[in-house]
Protein 1
Amino acid sequence: MGRARRLLWLLVAVVAVVAVVAVVSDSRSEPQTTATTQPGGTPVERPCPEHDGPSEPSVEGRAEIGEPLPAVTMPTVDGCTVSLTDYLGTPLVIPFGASWCQPCYVEWPALKAELEARPGELDVLAVNFREALAADTGSFLDEMGAPWQAIDDADGEVAQAFGVRTVPTTFFVDAEGVVRDRIFGADAEAIGEAVDALLAESPAAP
């Protein structure tokens, strides 16, 4: 009887060890979200652009190649209020992205390089794409070292006006506010070529 009891306890112990190992293995194999695996970077100063227009959020019209930008006034993830008209007079790049968008970690550094290579010749205004928490986009901007503002478009209203269904999607707008080009996906070379073409064909600032 004693021997049988010892065998029973040994069996229970083995089963318990196997269960613990299985639980640990499962917890280690669970995929983590980008927000937890991508650490935030050093905070970057992103000054609000000058804005003299309306303060109430609004989106009117649709973005089409060769046509003026839609009328958009929205808050940014840093608490500014911006309108797309605030950027008239300087060629503008509008990248749609999010902290969970892995290709954006390739595209946004390329955009930063283009911006730094052309000081005063180009502006960037990002749009967060259905990011649930504005703080996640802010941390993503800091990690990328991005000095531009990002419109808070958690509900996708701006994305709908631009016909954006996936990210990264990037629009190139001349100094008069006319959409000149659009790129899908992250391609640093294509971005550089699109910026060159934009600056070459963009009318001079008024």
Protein 2
Amino acid sequence: MTARHLSRAAWMLATAFLTLSACSTTSAPETYTQIAPGVDFRGVRTYGFLAEASTDRGGYESLETNFLKVAVAQQLDLRGMRYEPENPDVHMNFYIHSEDKIRTRQTPSMNTGYYGYRGGYYDGFGYGHGVGYETRVDQYTVGTLTIDMIDPKAKKVIWEGTVSGRITEKDVKDLEGTIDEAVRDIFYKFPVLDVTQEQKATSSQ
């Protein structure tokens, strides 16, 4: 392979790398949590759900609410808490929001113009190809899930977890699996460790 061919192959590899890097920076979900000061979560033994969650619609329980209740209950049970519908220590609530976004980015492109038929394998009389940039516009949807833990006596949020990330077609088709994974990501930062986390912490000591 000639030096010119090697140069072109290197350029194509660099272009692919830059494109993948640009995509990966926006696809990874981000997780945030907030804790009310002075709360001892070791005293939280029982949990329940609000009679009407923010994810319900028109006075009935939505599929999203149903999936969220199952996923959240599983995470709280793993942390030694018990479901109590009548008079729990905390109530759980959820909120889902989606927003359409547009991203503009520039990617390297072969600036061949009229002489593109040469395919970059040879140059003409001073009119060789160069590296330019083309602007691409991506439209995508960002979904955000927030879980609130509420002190029913004080009527205030004592813990809040949020995960936000790009929604794909696969996520929409497997809503239950998507919600379950999002809830696990949020509770990974919960103040009380689950059974698996405790075992890992113990074994590392």
Protein 3
Amino acid sequence: MRLAAIFAFAPLLLAACVSSPYGPAMPPLPATSVASPVAEVTVPPPQYRRQLVDDPTGASPGTIVVDPANRYLYLVQEDGKALRYGVGVGKAGMEWSGRARVAYKREWPRWTPTRDMIARDPQRYAQWAGGMEGGEGNPLGARALYLFEGGKDTLYRIHGTNEPASIGKAMSSGCIRLMNEDIVDLYNRVPAGASVVVLPMPQAGA
């Protein structure tokens, strides 16, 4: 089934992480360098590398559509095309779906675990209850897009990762993660206010 059909039925509420107005023209796609004291040497399989594809979503240009089942994020372009990025998604029980907007963006963002994360694993997260400064070791990576709905923070983010091997897998606390070089590319293309749709994971046995 085309994603356009699924897109039409995406839930409306989040489950609780000059040039075109939709971004600059498509640049060359080789890996770009991100200012970081440690270079990323692990790369995901070819299907999860950034590429221009036919748009399977039917969404309006400028919309971000996340397909967690297939581990892809699409930035819809004009003329029936989309930029496709490989992503890591929430592990079982932590995935989410719905609609939101990019309220604001940050470079090398500060990270603070949610109260739920601290309650689930205090040994791991309690030490960062006051927040962790941005940098190479920060779980949000090089950039982050903050998702709000109705003026309220959903607590979910689209962000980079210092664990590139996680791309294509379900192992996050619910947020959508991209390779650092890809989140930098997406960050540069997407303005605050952009629409975001995260499609639901298919039900077991469906």
Protein 4
Amino acid sequence: MSSRIVPAVLCAAALACAAAGSAQAHVVIDPREAPAGSYFKGTFRVGHGCMGAATVAVTVSIPPSILSVRPQPKAGWQVTIEREKLAQPVAGPHGHTIDERVARVTWRGGPLPSEFFDEFALQLKLPGTAPDGFLNFPVRQKCETGERDWSEIPGPGQAWHELKSPAPRLRRIGPVLAQDTSHGTQRHQSGPNGSVPRVLLRAKK
């Protein structure tokens, strides 16, 4: 490898490491992509506190297009669900009508020291479509002293990791086109690049 190539490689590696470190410092959702229309477990990872102060509450705001939300209980934390009325009722599963949705979920407890990370999970039924292919989940992190809003949304031509306090975001990778109700499965027919992987998603009964 020539002496001219080495600095370029080192520079690229440094930039990649900086981007990875920045992402680890943010509040993120894992996994970061899922098929549209699927049942999905999203885990929100909190990587640190507020300027060294321990975290005592985490509030996740739910995108309006998501109508089915179930938080996972967490030892040492109390879960609060905030609901709001829909402008118009919509048809739900099994012939039910949905007239309200979960707007926010909050975990209160801990405290979670800034030196440690932890995860907070939701089960969601994802919509069939999403603006620009993404769903954004603004998070408010409250600490023993201070708080932080992870709510910034990238603008046109702007990268998520360039933001100071970006909202966790989920990438929609393709629609669930058909459902086999006899076996309780959904078939994901198209992949992110137009491929046709044979993937079966277990639907909640």
